[in-house]
């Protein structure tokens, strides 16, 4: 089913997984999926390495989830270093497993790639969205990424919003946000979108913090900020203590979003089930 159709009727709950590199990680992910299926997600998504580095694995995991659990799946697809042929090859693979939902992304350029080499066939996600819409009409529901704290490369929030308009005008159906830890960022973002005439559904990206040092490092790369009081509360504490604080915080965050009428909650699971389960047990 298309996610855009679901979003018309309900608040969705979804889980994001990434294709592990090693067998050990694969075993963890098999187990995680098995556990989280009990929560009857509206859809799950599988990430795609920028430059196509996980292409086969992304298709394999999407196939596994769809075939064995019958869940609605969304495959992420990045256009960095891609051309029409490589994108067509992916959509052929997607069609073969009857997936109807794609998250159309640019992906990140390797930090050392010179500017002149970045002008590929699809420079921005909007180019990929436009290509997919033009070639495939309404066959796919297309999600796009949104940044409540602004994309790190954007010169201003307004220029990032102009980009969002381009992605939606090109055929994007709904938005999933980058993770954020302070609901005020989300609420402000929703206001800015509305003021700019954007009313596509915005699914909130949630990541329960279970290891503060890891999350602080990770968020520096994606431009999200961790509230200082949480850093102070969790830093140096035991694994169990951090887990409990992180879950507690995410529960409050989800409740606040639900009260405000959020379109959906998308959990960045990091391929683990414990924290997502603990949050859902106390939220839904
Ligand atoms: C929900 C979600 C899922 C993700 N999944 C993956 C994944 O599976 N694999 C992966 O590699 N990465 C993933 N990412 C990360 C994403 O690829 C990066 O954040 C990337 O840097 C931007 O991708 P985008 O699609 O938002 O790019 P774009 O929408 O193209 O925007 C990138 C930057 O370019 C700017 N821009 C766009 N158009 C123009 C223009 N015409 N002129 C000037 N500036 C412009 C934008 O403002 C922004 O700063 C995900 C992110 C999110 C939020």
From TrEMBL:
EC number(s) reported in the record: 1.5.1.54
Catalytic activity: (6S)-5-methyl-5,6,7,8-tetrahydrofolate + NAD(+) = (6R)-5,10-methylene-5,6,7,8-tetrahydrofolate + NADH + H(+)
Pathway membership, UniProt: Amino-acid biosynthesis; L-methionine biosynthesis via de novo pathway; One-carbon metabolism; tetrahydrofolate interconversion
Keyword set includes Transmembrane: no
Cofactor: FAD
Entries under InterPro entries matching the protein: FAD-linked_oxidoreductase-like, Mehydrof_redctse-like, MTHF_reductase_bac
Coiled coil stretches, renumbered: none
Pfam families: MTHFR (PF02219)
CDD domains from the UniProt entry: MTHFR (cd00537)
Domain of life: Bacteria
Keywords annotated in UniProt: Amino-acid biosynthesis, FAD, Flavoprotein, Methionine biosynthesis, NAD, Oxidoreductase
Gene Ontology cellular-component annotations: cytosol
GO biological process, one term: methionine biosynthetic process
UniProt GO MF annotations: FAD binding; methylenetetrahydrofolate reductase (NADH) activity
Top EC class, one word: oxidoreductase
Gene3D superfamilies referenced in this protein's UniProt entry, alphabetically: 3.20.20.220
The family this protein is said to belong to: Belongs to the methylenetetrahydrofolate reductase family.
Entry protein name: Methylenetetrahydrofolate reductase
Protein species of origin: Seleniivibrio woodruffii
